[in-house]
Design brief:
CATH topology of one domain: Rossmann fold
Number of helices: 24
Helix content: 40-55%
Radius of gyration: 25 Å
Number of strands: 10
CATH superfamily of one domain: NagB/RpiA/CoA transferase-like
Strand order of the largest sheet: 1-10-7-4-2-3
Strand content: 5-15%
Structural class: alpha/beta
Length: about 450
């Protein structure tokens, strides 16, 4: 068992038994669960919309090289610059070079999971650059020294009382402030940072190939401020986020907002096609887009797992997952949590270290049912398990256990052998790793096969 697997099990055991944690997360997810069905009513043919979005992503990824090259060509025409990063080190190196060339001391950053993936904040801090999260949820997490808990709602696991206490400890505010008052405190601090910052960093929800632009979706307006006030705007985005046409946004924007939060449309939807043009008064004087691979081409070359790259990060699968709702986002020990994280993390970080995430699933299929672009998530989880076995990532005890299981299930006489008491003793005492975090298995006195034969005789 790997260190990452042990840490996952330890954290999961703690969180699964934490009733207060469960209350908070189910309260917050419950709000989404109430809003999403209402949001879906805007679609006259919801299943058709999901299927069409999946087909658009399929087409984009089947021609990913051409789509990205066309994006670069169009983006460069408007004075932007595209940088290609094969891995985390490449991306960090490019960002630091840009920041140092502009003597950057303060950087403002909007919510971006891909910058969490490359641990950008830590790299900037190590190089003497202040990096300030401007999304309220991310700002709360940064104050608390924690990573995002949820793809869409970074501080979902915190109550308003938790946030008030945190602000009191870190910012010296009154511990009894209301959510509205806490928001105004953060707003006052962050507005000053937008003006001070030399560089602004954002992610991108979509790369728009035909016009050479990026699309950003948000609810607070902080991404617009992060890319408009500083003179230099850096976009860090995974290569899989490409869509062929600006016209596709008419489908993807409503899907993203509805399946994520239940909104018909997110409050701020922005398309950026380059730095400030000669006839424009607003925006950065220079703009860079860093196209990050970081293992995505490994997924792309896998015919089955390629489908996971269709994900638009709506977060619906997390809200639907019974495992996520019990153990929370931080237990996964990875940037991407929930079902989509359990699918892509083993392929991005290595099956040897993260195969356990694909086993931490009930395989109920609820994630597939709610996916906005109809990714067969539960089937991909099973495929990861198969791949891990094929690669030899199993220990001797696991191999023996499955050998016994296979033999007994292929021979009915073995399954019918012995009484319930003997079977209970063998399973519950022998397979201690199973019963360590689960209740004992209790076999019936007679198997279904035996009961059926008796029924047929009667």
């Amino acid at each position: 068992m790997t260190d990452t697997s042990n840490i996952f099990i330890q954290k999961s055991n703690v969180k699964a038994a934490d009733l207060e944690h469960r209350r908070k997360i189910n309260f917050n997810i419950g709000k989404y669960n109430a809003a999403v069905p209402q949001g879906k009513l805007q679609f006259s043919a919801l299943e058709y919309a999901r299927e069409r979005a999946k087909n658009i992503k399929w087409r984009a990824l089947e021609n990913l090289d051409k789509q990205l090259e066309h994006f670069e060509l169009q983006f460069n025409k408007r004075g932007g610059k595209v940088l290609w990063a094969e891995n985390t080190d490449d991306a960090i190196k490019e960002i630091l070079a840009i920041c140092k060339a502009r003597d950057c001391k303060t950087l403002v950053k909007s919510k971006s999971m891909v910058t969490e993936e490359i641990h950008l904040n830590q790299a900037l801090e190590d190089n003497g650059i202040e990096s300030v999260e401007t999304d309220l949820g991310e700002y709360i997490q940064q104050l608390d020294g924690e990573s995002p808990y949820h793809i869409v709602t970074p501080a979902m696991h915190k109550s308003k009382e938790d946030v008030a206490k945190l602000f009191a400890e870190k910012l010296g505010t009154d511990p009894n402030l209301t959510p509205q008052e806490l928001t105004l405190v953060a707003r006052d601090i962050l507005r000053k940072k937008y003006v001070e910052a030399e560089v602004g960093v954002t992610g991108a929800n979509f790369i728009i190939s035909d016009i050479g632009g990026i699309a950003i979706t948000e609810n607070e307006g902080n991404a617009r401020l992060s890319c408009a006030f500083p003179k230099t705007h850096i976009v860090v985005v995974g290569i899989e986020k490409v869509i062929p046409s600006i016209n596709d946004l008419a489908l993807f924007w409503p899907l993203l907002s509805t399946f994520g939060t239940g909104q018909q449309m997110t409050v701020y939807n922005t398309i950026v096609t380059g730095p400030r043009q000669p006839n424009e008064t607003d925006g950065p004087t220079e703009m860079f887009v860093i196209l990050l691979d970081n293992g995505r081409t490994n997924i792309l070359k896998n015919p089955k797992q390629r489908e996971s790259l269709y994900c638009i990060r709506c977060g619906a699968c997390l809200n639907a997952c019974p495992v996520y709702k019990n153990i929370g986002g931080h237990s996964y020990g990875a940037t991407y949590s929930g079902p989509i994280g359990s699918v892509i993390t083993p392929n991005l970080e290595g099956l040897e270290s993260f195969k356990h995430l694909s086993y931490a699933s009930s395989l109920c299929g609820n994630c597939t049912e709610v996916c906005s672009v109809k990714i067969n998530l539960h089937e991909l989880l099973l495929d990861n398990r198969h791949e891990s076995v094929e690669q030899g990532n199993t220990d001797l005890s696991e191999k023996i256990a499955w050998k016994i299981w296979k033999m007994s299930n292929l021979h009915r006489s073995l399954l019918n052998l012995g009484n319930a008491k003997m079977k209970n003793k063998i399973v519950n005492k022998l397979f201690t790793s199973w019963t360590a975090s689960r209740g004992d298995l209790n076999f019936t006195d007679k198997t279904f096969n035996q009961l059926w034969k008796e029924r047929e005789k009667k």
